[in-house]
Amino acid sequence: MDLSAFPYLQGNYAPVEEERDFDERQLRIEGEIPAKLTGAFMRDGANVAFQPNHYVYPLDGDGMIHAVYFRDGHVEYKNRWVQTSHLKTERKFGRTIYGSVGKLLEVPQEVIDAGGEPNPIRNTANTNVIYHGGKLLALWEGGFPHLLNHDLSTVGLFDYDGALKPGDALTAHPKVCPDTGDLISCTQRWDSPNYWVQVFDARGRHKQTMEVEFPRKGIIHDLQITGNYVVIFYAPTYHSVEKAMKGEDPFVWEPELGTKIIAVPRDGSGNNIVFETESFFSWHFCNGFEAGGKIIIDYVWINSIPFAQAQGTGTEKQPRRMYRMSLDPKTRQVTNEQFSDIFCEFSRVDERRMGKVYRLGYATCSNRDWGDAHGYNCTGSFDFNSGETALWEYGEAANAGEPVHVPNPDSEREEDGWLMCFVHNPGEGPFLSILSAGDVAAGPVAKIHIPGRVPNGFHANWMQGLTL
Ligand SMILES: [Fe+2]
């Protein structure tokens, strides 16, 4: 592959070519692994198998999961592609067939005649991996999830026993309610501007659908729950399939329209509350909760959708900051304030506090100049009680992934858990970093060094109790 034309396939963004298995003898452990953890840290990401025709970071590229399994203080590592029908078709033909969401290509008739995947929109399965209701799922917001076995082998597309209809696209950012175990998710469709909140119970059975009508199909990536609401951001950004099929820039940013915030009551009443504010974009929420009659939302703010102006040219250097938003359902008033001036993304919390009052948010952060093919070289914590931010820098040129909070099984306290993320530090190589959730600035309590590169990726989770 010659990837020189693609800024977001350089350095540690470049794909790996092999699926690998490393046992404890091959992994080098520095420090002390928390002894009582039973489960797996898994992270999804884009890992092109064939040279792409076009590449829009962070939407394209075949999904690959990297996993570190923990049991009785012992660890194992695996990485596997998600075997999507698009990837299987390209493997059969030995070449790239499909385009990107920024530039769709007609599927050749010979591919369709040979039984290859006919949909020009690639289900990459590359964005997130979750474990809910006993099912391990690789997610991508443009289509169905893929069901995986614990060893990362692919079972196939999963439609929640028929709850998802052909054309439904399930978000990659569902939230689990810590009180009920429900998975609060949503579907969108390529052929409708509307949005459907979907609730699946703790066993993964479909429970509830709530429709939200929109005039135009927006790019809505994440959702946040609070005790009574599902909150979404409707920014003035849109994607046009027609433009993508013509090879034109399909992403639109119309800031004069402002950003709307929609609070959908979880009781299904349909009495949605719409808030209006000046335009901004966000990929990710940190957390949200209700207090004093207000809805509080913490999230990573961006001034506009990063790739709307110039795809693949590094426009991701726009500032990103942790913000706290306060919404008053009675007056519809919105206050939106920067919480920290640290450049950050991939914000997370202790999932036991999801939708509830909490103290600590976490994100991957950068404390260095922002190049065109950037990386985040720190893990950060945001203390919403004290207002303080703490950072651990892995190295000037390091790349650190999304930090996942792993609870301490012996404690209810956020700060007693750990943070895990993959890090690539030139000269040191790739490792899984384990930090104290209460003392990020002290640096890793353990590093699990992996004898093979782990590219930069997207979302990760701790799969409690999942073992091989
Ligand atoms: Fe995301």
TrEMBL record:
One of the record's GO molecular function terms: metal ion binding
Annotated TM spans: none
Cofactor: Fe(2+)
GO biological process: carotene catabolic process
Binding site for Fe cation: H173, H221, H284, H459
Alphabetized UniProt keyword annotations: Iron, Metal-binding, Oxidoreductase
UniProt entry tagged with the keyword Signal: no
A Pfam family per the record: RPE65
Cofactor note: Binds 1 Fe(2+) ion per subunit.
Family: Belongs to the carotenoid oxygenase family.
Protein name: Uncharacterized protein
Organism classification: Bacteria, Pseudomonadati, Pseudomonadota, Gammaproteobacteria, Cellvibrionales
